[in-house]
Write a structure and sequence with these properties.
mainly alpha, membrane, 14 helices, 373 residues, 9,15,9'-tri-cis-zeta-carotene isomerase activity, transmembrane
Length: 373
């Protein structure tokens, strides 16, 4: 449910990207040789008549052809795609990984989970149950409570994201990431647990669970949605602030399909669960989550425009919010080996994680029920 906010160096151009030239082209100029002396003399003769040698279209065409021969590029089409302003997504180079960084990541993850359990989840020591009780006192409707929980999370999450530039200047990137996660994570856990415990408590609007292929379609939609939901942070070391957190401006992989994959993934997840469960609580949760991510798409574009200026505008011109729209209208040119942008370790991890979460549904439901939130 986290919004996707990304960054990079605005002048970054990956030389390894398949759409980028491998070297910077030199200006096309004629090298004075005996064959081209009359076309491009180093010094005009004394009887030079500008009117007599006034350029014509055939002359200019031959001059361009001669220049291309001079630079050894006679068969190369220079009208290729513009250079990339963003980053190549999901790149993972094993040789650049440090074992110590992943040890720190494991330790930080363990500490975070321990503090989250003691300070929030455990009913005997944490504040999670008190928080749910306080919100539940506002209404007897599970739909209203579900919507309020999402509204609280969305306000805090998007509010802290909007204040990120100012906050990082005051306390630094790593400290602000800790603050951001420390406040957002407990609220997210409370919202998810309440949804799991009360997903069947609303008014049943339809029941399609016994209909043919509905389960398969819902499962497939949910599975695909995680490939859109994940790319807010391809570098897990930044999530734990082991590496300095950055606001990335991704431009390849899933970003070619939609500039806001988390919003698209959340819509897919909500539709799949709403169709499958088919009651008023799920509808309320879906409306809240989709509304939050629609705002996040607008807010994310606004923040990236402030941070990157023309670099973001360049990315915006050749991407789209609506999936595949930029591809269909020709603004996004897919390379022939586009599929290789998905054959990378982060996407393989998404596949394994998604399958793991599906098979862990009974464990998640049992753990949520024991909390009685």
């Amino acid at each position: 449910m986290a919004s996707s906010f990304l960054l990079s160096n605005p002048s970054f151009t990956s030389a390894r990207h398949p759409n980028n030239p491998t070297s910077r082209r030199q200006p096309l100029t004629l090298r004075p040789t005996s064959a081209f002396t009359l076309l491009n003399p180093t010094k005009p003769p004394s009887n030079y008549n500008p009117k007599f040698l006034k350029p014509t279209l055939p002359f200019l065409g031959f001059k361009k052809f001669a220049a291309r021969i001079s630079t050894g590029d006679a068969d190369t089409d220079t009208s290729g795609p513009p250079p990339f302003a963003g980053e190549d997504s999901a790149v993972f180079e094993l040789g650049k990984q440090k074992i110590t960084s992943w040890i720190y990541f494991s330790l930080i993850l363990g500490v975070v989970l321990f503090v989250l359990d003691v300070g929030w989840i455990d009913n005997s020591t944490g504040f999670g149950k008190d928080f749910i009780s306080a919100v539940s006192s506002l209404s007897e409707s599970h739909e209203v409570i579900m919507f309020i929980l999402i509204l609280i999370f969305a306000t805090v999450h998007s509010g802290l994201a909007s204040l990120r530039d100012m906050g990082e200047k005051l306390i630094g990137e790593r400290a602000y990431r800790v603050l951001f996660a420390g406040v957002s994570l407990p609220l997210a856990v409370s919202t998810v647990v309440y949804f799991i415990n009360h997903r069947y408590d609303g008014i049943q609007l339809w029941d399609l669970q016994s209909a043919p292929v509905v389960h398969q379609l819902a499962w497939l939609s949910n599975f695909i949605s995680f490939f859109f939901l994940y790319p807010s942070t391809f570098n897990l070391l930044e999530v734990a602030a082991v590496d300095k957190p950055k606001m990335h401006l991704w431009e390849t992989g899933i970003m070619r399909i939609t500039r806001h994959p988390q919003m698209v993934g959340q819509v897919m997840w909500c539709l799949a669960h709403t169709v499958w469960i088919g009651n008023s609580v799920t509808v309320a949760a879906s409306l809240g989550l989709i509304g939050h991510h629609l705002f996040g798409a607008w807010n994310g574009d606004r923040r990236l425009a402030i941070r990157y200026g023309e670099a973001f505008e360049s990315v915006k011109r050749r991407t789209s919010i609506v999936p595949f729209a930029a591809i269909l209208d020709g603004r996004q040119k897919l390379p022939k080996d586009y599929y290789k942008e998905f054959l990378r370790l982060p996407y393989l991890l998404i596949t394994a994680l998604t399958l793991g979460v599906y098979f862990a549904h009974p464990l998640m439901q049992a753990a949520s029920f024991r909390l009685h939130w």
